[in-house]
Structure formats: structure tokens, C-alpha cells
Design brief:
This protein has about 325 residues and is an alpha+beta fold. It has twelve helices and four strands, in the order ααααααααααβββαβα. The protein has a four-stranded antiparallel beta sheet with strand order 1-4-2-3.
Length: about 325
């Protein structure tokens, strides 16, 4: 009798041990298992690819005599091959904000609203707000984990090779694909897709609108990167060597100027019959650079991430407000 009494308890404990997650957590994993598998695969494959490419490139450079041999002295084919491989992988990472926005964000709520899943969830013992927060948390959690791993590894790779590859740190190839910008940018496009889906209530329509809206937004971002902070300015002799402060710097603009600090456009006196005499007459003796120093990179990235995260928070608030008020 005691054996029979213990059998159901053992069965229940065994079932509970096998099924480690319950409730909404189980529902999110079950409903979005395709996205979960895809993100896991992309993270693992991307991480292994970056680690392999970094090791291979460093071995190639060390065999060629780098860093004892300066970068300009490396074989042209070797440097070009390394640069192409780096830029190719950076190009794939650059698609992440668009992919997450279209395939994770846009259908997240619109598919449930279109197929009636949201109405079914609302008839259960779970409140609409709790269901919505779980949906948002699951999708944005996938974004953060995937982009955090890939962005961190890509930055680790770039810092080891930044004197070799042609892409400067302010270009989208590096700036947008390293932390914290990659996380913030992908969060923004994903929440943008979620908001569009909540408004359109049709998955395919939301995906199409999100694609074009996100693509346009990413293009606009390229023009605002240099406006996140005020460039520094340095003057040095016209025919002189670049000062040490320009090591790793990104040039924003270039002028020529007088010893008193007055600047002229770089093309001043170029079309004159005697450019040297023209410059002497005007007192032009210096080259003037407006630039961003390498030490400004972190500040610029966190400023960009702050704007993007603020926009993402506003979009999430809009989604919660809209979804709670509208009929399912």
C-alpha cells in the first residue's frame, strides 16, 4: 500500500524534473522556438567564425613579420586579403538590425493579432499586460544576447587588427558593429518593428513596412555619426609631419590657416599662378585638421547608444499603451 501511495508522487516529481520551465516561459519558448534556434545558431556560428578568422589573420601577419615590420611594408596581397575578410564579416553583422527588425520585431505581435492567438491568450488566467511583457522581454532578450556576444567578439577582433584594416573606427563598419552601438541599434529596429506590427496588425504588411523604414533609418544614421560630439582642431606646418595627437584619429575636415589662427578653405590659392606666393601673401603657414581622436570613440558610441535606447524605450511604451487599449 505504501508503495502504491508513493508511485504518483514519484511520477509527478519525474514529470516536473523533465519540464523545467512552465507557464508563459514555456509558451514563449514553444511559440518562438524557430527564432530561438536561429539566434542560437547565428550566435554560435558567428562567434566561432570570428575567433577562427582572428587567429588565422594574426598568424598570417606574424609570419609576415608584423608588428615588427610596419603595416605599410606588408605584402599588398596579404593586407588586401585581410581587409576583405574583415569587411565581409562586418557586412554580415551590419544586416543584424534589419534582420531582427523584420523577422523578430514585426511579426511578434502582429502575427498573434492576425491569427487570433492574442485573443486566445487573453481568455486564459494571464492578464494582457503580463502576456505582453513576456512577449517583449523574450524578443528583446534574444536581441541583447545575440548582439552582445557578436559585438564584443567583433570589437575584440578589430582592436587586434585596427592598424592593419582600412576601416577607421568612425565608419559604420566598426562603429555600428561593436558594443554598445550594435545592441542599441538592433534594439531600436526591433522595437520599431514591434510598434509597426502593433499598429498594422498584419504580419506581412508589418514586415514590409519595417524593412523599408529600418533601411531608411540606417542610412540616415550614417550622416549623424559625426554630429554626436564637437570635433577637435589642431594646426601644424604645411609641409610638416602629422603630430602625435592624430595617431588613430579620424579626419572630419581640413583647412589651411595663418599663424594667428585664421583659416581658409583647402583649395585657397590652388588655382593661382603661383600658389606658394599666394599663400605667403595671405600669411598661410599651417595645415588645420578638424578630427575625432581615438580616445573619443567610447564617448561617441555611448552617446549614440543613449539616443537609440531612449527611442527604443519610447517605442516600447507606445506598444504597451496601444496594445492594452485596442481590441484583440
Amino acid at each position: 500500500m505504501s508503495v502504491l501511495a508513493r508511485t504518483p508522487a514519484r511520477q509527478e516529481a519525474s514529470f516536473g524534473g523533465r519540464r523545467r520551465i512552465r507557464g508563459l516561459a514555456w509558451l514563449m519558448v514553444r511559440q518562438h522556438r524557430a527564432a530561438l534556434i536561429a539566434c542560437t545558431a547565428a550566435t554560435l556560428i558567428g562567434a566561432l567564425w570570428i575567433i577562427y578568422e582572428r587567429g588565422t589573420m594574426l598568424d598570417t601577419l606574424h609570419n609576415a613579420g608584423w608588428p615588427a615590420k610596419p603595416t605599410v611594408a606588408l605584402d599588398g596581397g596579404t593586407a588586401q586579403s585581410i581587409d576583405n575578410s574583415f569587411n565581409n564579416l562586418a557586412g554580415y553583422l551590419g544586416y543584424l538590425p534589419l534582420v531582427f527588425g523584420v523577422f523578430i520585431g514585426a511579426p511578434l505581435l502582429s502575427a498573434d493579432q492576425e491569427h487570433g492567438t492574442a485573443r486566445l491568450a487573453a481568455t486564459q488566467s494571464v492578464s494582457r499586460l503580463r502576456w505582453l511583457l513576456w512577449k517583449l522581454g523574450f524578443a528583446l532578450g534574444l536581441v541583447v544576447v545575440t548582439t552582445a556576444v557578436l559585438g564584443a567578439l567583433f570589437g575584440w577582433w578589430w582592436r587586434a587588427l585596427r592598424t592593419v584594416v582600412s576601416s577607421d573606427w568612425l565608419s559604420g563598419t566598426v562603429f555600428d558593429n561593436t558594443l554598445p552601438v550594435l545592441i542599441a541599434l538592433t534594439l531600436f529596429t526591433t522595437t520599431l518593428g514591434i510598434a509597426i506590427g502593433a499598429l498594422t496588425r498584419r504580419a506581412v504588411t508589418a514586415m514590409a513596412v519595417t524593412f523599408f523604414t529600418s533601411a531608411a533609418f540606417l542610412l540616415v544614421c550614417d550622416h549623424f555619426r559625426t554630429r554626436l560630439a564637437t570635433p577637435r582642431r589642431v594646426a601644424f606646418p604645411l609641409d610638416g609631419a602629422h603630430p602625435a595627437v592624430l595617431d588613430g584619429a579620424v579626419q572630419v575636415d581640413q583647412w589651411i590657416g595663418t599663424a594667428s589662427g585664421k583659416v581658409y578653405g583647402w583649395g585657397t590659392c590652388v588655382s593661382d599662378a603661383s600658389p606658394e606666393a599666394c599663400r605667403a601673401r595671405m600669411g598661410i603657414v599651417n595645415t588645420v585638421w578638424d578630427y575625432f581622436g581615438y580616445d573619443q570613440m567610447a564617448g561617441l558610441q555611448w552617446t549614440a547608444a543613449g539616443f537609440l535606447l531612449g527611442g527604443s524605450a519610447l517605442l516600447v511604451a507606445l506598444v504597451v499603451w496601444r496594445t492594452r487599449r485596442q481590441a484583440l
